[in-house]
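Bench notes, afternoon.
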Amino acid sequence: MNYLAHLVLAYPHPNLMVGNYLADFIQKRDEKNILPVYHPGISFHRWIDNYTDHHATVDELNVIFRPAVHKYAPVATDIVMDYFLHYNWSLFMDLDYDVFAEKIYHLLKLKSADFPEPAQTITHRMIQGSWLDQYKSMEGLADVMNRMNRKAKFDVQFENTLEIVQSQHDKLNALFLRFYQDISREAVSWLNLRNEMKS
């Protein structure tokens, strides 16, 4: 999953959210340079990624997107799941989405001095560009996909996934809900275990 789901699963714990966010920008060998308070969030991020990569429903989603973006299907799936998380927001979060987004921007801005590069630069762009707003519409999703085109090492047209999202919206939504209900439950178990280990 992409930024949004990682942040939501770690909510409302600030350091857990920050560590979860930072994990996208560091290698395992660089973790020693990150403040220890963020290490549980980094571990949580890696657990989320591993759980997602091995979930049968995510495999189904990847199969749907593979004809459009080939080897990048898991990347497209991650992005599209954030779109569907916003689409189903009220099922999982009591907090208004825009209020949540502002809380995230404020938190990341507050903590950004702790971030290595390129995390500081990307965080600034994220806040200035209100990236979390892009999951609110198909137009915003198209912007995310176009940004991913520029980041990809191999030629790919991520926007080819948009027609699939539109034409198979209900099916994709049902698959997302099946997966997200599972990972939400397992994430709570993971966090409870971490709390027990700390005590």
